[in-house]
Amino acid sequence: MRILTHNKGQNVIEYTMLIIIVAAALMAMSTYVMRSMNARLKQTQEELNYYRRE
Q1: Does 9 or 31 have the greater pLDDT score?
Q2: Dist CA 42 CA 47 (whole Å)
Q3: Cα separation of 53 and 27, whole Å?
Q4: Residue 34 and residue 51: Cα distance in Å, rounded?
Q5: CB-based contacts of 13: which residues, under 8 Å, 6+ apart?
Q6: d(CA 9, CA 13)
Q7: In the prediction, which pLDDT does 1 show?
Q8: What angle do CA 15, 31, 19 make, to 5 degrees?
Q9: pLDDT-derived band of residue 8, with 50, 70 and 90 as boundaries?
Q10: Model pLDDT for residues 11-47, shown as the tens digit of each residue
């Protein structure tokens, strides 16, 4: 009975660590995603301004 309880506790800790690692990876990627989105928006804005001048 004690071994079964230990395994359940270990599983909870492992899943918690996995969630923390995934969350940290997503937070680290968010910087690059935002930079990419801003660059794409700037490029689109410049293209629209170019066609507006013509």
Answers
A1: 31
A2: 9
A3: 40
A4: 26
A5: none
A6: 6
A7: 45
A8: 5
A9: confident
A10: 899 999 999 999 999 999 999 999 999 999 999 999 9
Question: What distances in angstroms separate CA 33 from CA 7, 27, 36, 42, 47, one per listed residue?
Answer: 38, 10, 5, 14, 21
- Residue 4's pLDDT band (boundaries 50, 70, 90)? low
Radius of gyration, alpha carbons of the chain:
23
Name the phi and psi angles at 9, rounded to 5: -65, -40
Nearest to 7 by CA among 21, 15, 22: 15
